[in-house]
Model the fold of this input.
Amino acid sequence: MNFSANVSTNLSVCQFPPFCSLDAVTNCRNIPLKDCSSCSVGIGVVIILSFFILGLLTIVGNCLVFFVILSSSKKDRTKLDYIRVSLAIADIIKGLDLVIVGVPHTIRSLRQTASEIILHAAKSQGTTLAICGGLFVFFIYTSSLFHLLYMSGQRFIAVQFPFKYRNLKITHVVWHLVALWTFSFVGSSIPAWSSGDLKFGYNPEIFQYFINPKANGVGIFELVPLSIFVLLPYVIMCSLTIATTYIAKSQMRRSKHLQNNSQPTTRDKKAERSLVALTKAMVLGYTISIVPIVVLLFLEYFGEVPCARLSDVSFVIFYVSTASGLGDVVTYSLYDRNFRTQVCYHLNKIFVKRRRLFSNINLENGGSSTPKTDRRSNIPLATVT
Done:
């Protein structure tokens, strides 16, 4: 991602698809990458399949979250459920990006020559298409980040100020989510309206339009707004989750001393373990999905990433962070017993309806799974004339 726009050679070497070696810049200059010996078509196919499978799982998993919550009665929905629905929408968009953007761009890269990829990457810097595409990708990440930040803040309020949390109305949460989406869009648009070196462009190594500096190194004034909208929310999230865990443990210790027996109840133990596990999972998920890609961007801006490794490192870090959309569903499945119960309940309803459908079909055939036959001729009655 870190190159000078005036030096096309450096741009091409560092920003090349990860299924090709560095000598593909010269060996495949006029040859489609799929026919070039310096590129691996097999790795390219694996990347395409990975994008499609990961994107499909992310979409299906978050649609399941969406369905489970919205299929419940309105009175049974909690404030956290509305946040989860909004987060699921953000993660569904992330899955769609993999399928409708990542897959076609990878296929196109296999069909293009090295010269065509270099020219497209160089000409895309700051164009309308690059700005729209980059805004879309960055918006996906900032919206997920702010959703999880809001969730951690709600958990902190629920533990520290339980009465205030109970008095918080659903309508207030909905308006908070609207503000959150707006704030996410503003944060994602920083590279578009900044006058410095933070610009959007096509990145062949990740097959996406994303942040791309115009020159080596950027000024501190361009990094400050990016830090406010990306790094600061992460720091606040970590602080809130650590504080929530500490407060919860302190309250459990106090309740233990107030009890007649010396040991907390089994229910209290499970609640504490669940809270600690969920908090750790949230922190780990944020760290895996957000921190590496932000650190990579900062290192690129200061020229600290070797060009030979930049393509592979950028690809791995970017799509590990993309997998966070599926990670949210996995977290719910592992640490939220109610979510697991609801999923099993609705899946069971689907299978029961399917069994009833087949039963009705059998009843129409006379109560048997096979049609009745004439005893004398052993021919199905429907065919006897």
